[in-house]
Design a protein that fits this description.
Radius of gyration: 19 Å
Distance between the termini: 30 Å
Order of helices and strands: EHEHEHEHEEHEEHEHEHEH
Shape: globular
Oligomer: single chain
Largest sheet: 7 strands, parallel
Number of helices: 9
Strand order of the largest sheet: 3-2-1-4-5-7-10
Helix content: 25-40%
């Protein structure tokens, strides 16, 4: 903790993952700036000892007021963690890439050299067979809009010569009050029953980010998925029973497609041991 005293980290997006990450980093001795888009969450951040900033990135222009807020948010920080997802549903859909393009000049002006970008395994398209194993060596070919924008953003950040960015491609996020079964329970005709799951617990997300920070590893790409890949059908039926929810029903008539995302690199290079090996 003493070694981290005086070091400052800025977390852009203190949501479901960003806020507990901030709290963990503070316990490790870091000073943490945290952003939110709502005034009501400022008190939540203050209570967690996070220095709060209201920041709403625009894909078109940055107001003078927002410019000052972003500059203050990044000032004197050693590391920036970008942790907010693209909003691509309904009337609130956005150009996520353009938002990051608007942010980059502020990173450069702050002379900030280390960035962690929280991405997703959605940058990898599903294979025509459930036997596909995906490593970081495979070039993403996303087939969904969220994956396309994340992949473009990854390249945008990693190709910038003024700072180094480590990209973490998390699988589906689970943890306190968050699990896919709450959405899937009781559903019928779910596709891809034999496709493997690719999930990761919030605790391991935080552990992996903190390991990257402590090891000072930037300019890399890591898949971050718990090495536990039962089929969707067996896993979600088991979870429905465990949580006392209605069991989902799967469409067995269509062939399943999917992929198994490998976290071997993160285990080997970072010597990271997953805390939740069974989800």
């Amino acid at each position: 903790m003493t070694a981290n005293k005086g070091k400052q980290i800025s977390i852009l997006g203190c949501g479901w993952l960003g806020l507990p990450l901030a709290e963990s980093l503070i316990k490790r001795g870091f000073s943490v700036n945290g952003s939110t888009t709502t005034l009501t969450k400022v008190l939540v951040l203050k209570t967690a000892k996070v220095i709060p900033f209201i920041i709403t990135l625009s894909a078109v222009e940055v107001s003078d007021e927002m410019r000052l807020s972003i500059e203050a948010f990044l000032e004197k920080s050693d590391i920036l963690i970008i942790d907010f997802p693209p909003k691509l549903r309904g009337n609130d859909s956005e150009n996520f890439v353009a938002k990051i393009q608007m942010l980059i000049p502020f990173i450069e002006k702050a002379k900030l050299k280390k960035v962690v970008f929280v991405s997703s395994t959605s940058v990898y398209a599903d294979g025509t067979s459930t036997a596909l194993s995906v490593t970081e060596m495979i070039k993403p070919k996303p087939n969904k809009e969220s994956g396309k924008q994340l992949w473009e953003t990854e390249q945008l950040l990693q190709n910038n010569p003024n700072f180094k960015t480590t990209v973490i491609r998390f699988g589906g996020l689970i943890g306190k009050n968050r699990h896919p079964i709450y959405f899937l329970a009781g559903k019928k005709n779910l596709e891809n029953p034999e496709a493997p799951i690719n999930l990761i617990h919030q605790t391991d997300c935080i552990g992996i980010i903190e390991t990257i920070i402590s090891r000072d590893i930037y300019g890399e790409i890591y898949n971050a998925v718990t090495p536990f890949h039962p089929t969707r059908k067996s896993y979600y039926i088991q979870k429905a029973v465990e949580f006392e929810l209605h069991v989902p029903q799967f469409d067995e008539d269509k062939p399943s497609i999917g992929k198994t995302v490998s976290s071997n690199k993160i285990e080997m290079e970072l010597n990271y041991k997953f805390q939740h090996k069974i989800l």
